[in-house]
Structures
1.
Amino acid sequence: MTHEKKSFGPEIEVVRQLAGVLVDAGLTEIEYDTGGWRVRVVKAPAPVMATTVAVPSAAPSVAPAPSAPAGDAAAPREGDSLADHPGILASPMVGVVYTAADPAAPPFIKVGDVVAVGDTVLLIEAMKVFNPIKAHRSGRIERIFVTSGMPVEYGEPLLLIV
C-alpha cells in the first residue's frame, strides 16, 4: 500500500517563504497579493516584558546640576526619559538590525565615534532588503541600544547621538 503525498501546488511554497520572512524579520504579520490570490500569515507576538523606572516626583536638589557641554543637547542623566531626547535615533521600520555591512566587517559605529548627518550608522533588514539607517544629526555616539542580529520594532530607540 502506497501513501500518496497530497500536493498543495506552488502556493504552499509562497506561504513557506512568507513564514520564513516573518520569522527572519521579526514581524508578526505579513500579507501577499498576486492579483489572482491573496494570503496573510499571522504569528502570535511574543510576550513583552514591561520595565518601569521609578522617577522621584519632586525631590529637592542637593546641588545644582553641572552645566551642559557645548552643543544643542547634553547626554541624558540617569533617570531621564530617553523617548523625548532629540539625539535618539529610533527605528524607522520593523526588521533585524545589523551593526556592520557583513559579519567580518568592522561595525559602522561604536560608542564615542563622531558622526555627521547622513552617515550610515546601522542596517535594518526588512523583507530581505538591507536598508541603511543614517544619522539624523551630527554628534558623538553616546549609547547604542541594539546588537547585531537583534529584531527591532518601529520607533524602538537604536542609538543616542549627543
Note: The chain has one helix and ten strands.
2.
Amino acid sequence: MKQYTENEVQQALEDVAGGCSIRRAALTWGIPYPTLRHRIQGTQSRDIAFAGQQKLSQTQESLLSDWITTQAALGFSPTHQQLRELARRVLGDPQPLGRKWVTRFLRRNPSIGTQRSRAIDARRVNGAKADIIQEWFHRLDLPAVKGIKPSNRWNMDETGIMEGKGTNGLVLGSSETRHIQKKQPGSRVWVSLIECISADGQSLLPLVIYKGKAVQQQWFPLDLSGYAGWQFTATDNGWTTDATALEWLEKVFIPQTAPRQADEARLLILDGHHSHTCRE
C-alpha cells in the first residue's frame, strides 16, 4: 500500500472543503477513502492520537527536525545513530529507543528524509577557491546563524608548536599537517594549543596540550602570573583527542562564552577534525 503523509491528508481536506468530492480527493492524493472520510468526521490523525505514547513531545521533535535541517545545510548531516543518541540525551533516559524509532520519527516529520551521503573532494576542503568561499558565506546567511549576535559567534582552531634543536627554535604549523611531525628528529616535542575568537574580536584563554602522560610542574616557569586562567593537559602525542576537545568545551568554551541573557544562542565554528564532531 502506498504510504501517505499528514501533509497530503491536509491537502485532500482542503480540496474537499473547496467543493471536491471525498472520493476524488482521496484518489488524487493517494489516501484510502475510509481514512479521509473519518478525518472529515473528526477523527484525529495518528500523530495526534498517539502523541501521548511518543517518547519525545511534538515540540521536541519539531526542534530536532530544525536541528537536522540546519546541520545538513552546514554539511554535517547526522546519521541515524547520531539522531538516536541526541534524542536519548534530550529524554535523559538511559533506556534505548525502540528499533523502529527513527523510521517512525521520519514518518512523523516528512520534511526530514534519509539521503545517501556524498564525500567532498579533498580539493574542495583544502582549496581556498571562490566557489568554496561563497558557499561558506551562504551558510552564514542561514536564518539559524544570522539570528545569533556577533558577540556570540565563535571560531576555534588548533595550532602546533614544535620545540627542539634547530636555528629557528620553535616552528609553527597547523595541527592538520601532522605527518610533518613524524619526519622530525626524536628529540623534538610537539605542543598543541586550542584557541578561539569571536566575530566582534574577543578571544578566549587557550587550552595547551603537552606530550606526556600527565602535566608536570617542571614544564612551567616559577612565575605563572602571565598564565592565569589558562588550561593545561597532556596526551600521548601532544595532539588533540576526543577527550581533550570535550575538556576544552566544558572548561574553556562554555564558561568563558556565557551570554548575558541565558536564552541567547551561541555559535561555535570549527573544522571537520574527528575530535570536533565526536558523539560527546
Note: The radius of gyration is 26 Å.
